[in-house]
Amino acid sequence: MDLSPDLRARILASTATAPAPTRAQTRRSRAIILGSGLAGALGVFFYNGGVRLTNRPPMLAALTSLGTAVCAALAMYGLFTKRGRSMMRRPATILALIAIAAVGAFVAWRFGVSALFDRTARWPTRPGFKCLALGTTIGAIPLFAALVSWRRTEPLTPFATGAAFGAGAGLGSAVLVDLWCPVSYLPHLLLGHVVPVVLLAGLGGLVGRYLLRLRRL
Amino acid sequence: MVSDGPSEMVEPCGADEAMGRYSRGDDQAFAIVYDVVAPRLIGYLRRRVSDGARVEDIVQQTFLQMHAARGSFVDGAEVLPWAFTIARRVMVDLSRKSSRETPVDPGARQETSAAFMSAAASGEEVVQAHETHRLFNEALDRLTEPQRAAFELMKVEGLSLEQAASVLGTTVTGVKLRAHRAYESLREALFGERTRTPPRGMPSSNPATM
Known about the structure:
The structure holds two protein chains of two kinds.
Chain A: H1 7-17, H2 23-47, H3 58-80, H4 92-116, H5 129-149, H6 158-180, H7 186-211
Helix pairs in contact in A: 2-5, 3-4, 3-6, 4-6, 5-6, 5-7, 6-7
Chain B: H1 12-23, H2 30-46, H3 52-68, H4 79-94, H5 106-117, H6 123-142, H7 145-156, H8 161-168, H9 172-191
């Protein structure tokens, strides 16, 4: 099989004439897009009332939020960063395990700490749908920002990467919802605080499958 | 300005550094990346794709994708596994029916047959080496795609376990398992049809160390 003798020259010439942002330019544009996404998320959060202690002791709210934040931060590190010196992300099974572990940990933390303060009673008027709507809305904005920021860069698993972005956004929104919601009844936590993570992971996967994958140039 | 000829031979780690410079805006560095990565990609693709024009298309698309995503290149990252991953994706996208085409170009298999012939001295050994080579290729074609990919990336392309795992999107343990199964299948095919002593003229008697 003989290849064209001018293949090298042709490829280098085509890349020389096609503009591509440098790392600094990419970082700048991503910072703007992601910053806008985070600002939007915070805007929704504060529009809906922001931090609400209601009848929670401040220490309880601080402890549960801190624990949720730690779980979310650790998970985001695993979900968003690449593996070692690789340009590829972690395998899909590892990403799924990270997300599941983080969700389990923050539910256990929230419920466990609330139990210490005897605050796990059922709230009949708060089944979890408000938290579900708020968490999903808050998380969707930075999720789309992330998908747009990394569009057309995922050669291996665009669905899994998008789902990882979604799970990360969901965990981040869970931190804010934790500050907003005083209910620690377990079924409420599952519906209102865990389901948004699942929904956002699914949404991220479906949209990421198209936005993140490589397109013919 | 693009030069006509390749730059001097650069180690893969030099290509990593060159890609890092390219991502920061040093446009001349991409030629270094090309000169290190392209021969490896072309060799790999030739074993998979029979059409020379398609190989060129995949190579061109791969480097265009790397160029377009240069802003995303992580400082210190390895460019070779990344290039292989992109090339595999481009190859799959271009070939919807099957990601693996049986190479029909005899030249594509000559690289591996040379390894079998190199140690052959007598005419009998040449015949034996031909037969071994035939058995090896048949056994390779019978491997599942994940097993074959793991074997080729590690034993033919020389990628490490970690690099092969990142290219294939699996864990190191997953790659080890696939490679082990590939070795077992090849060993069975090569030594199961003969006595347990390896044929003369073969560079290595143990497929696991090929």
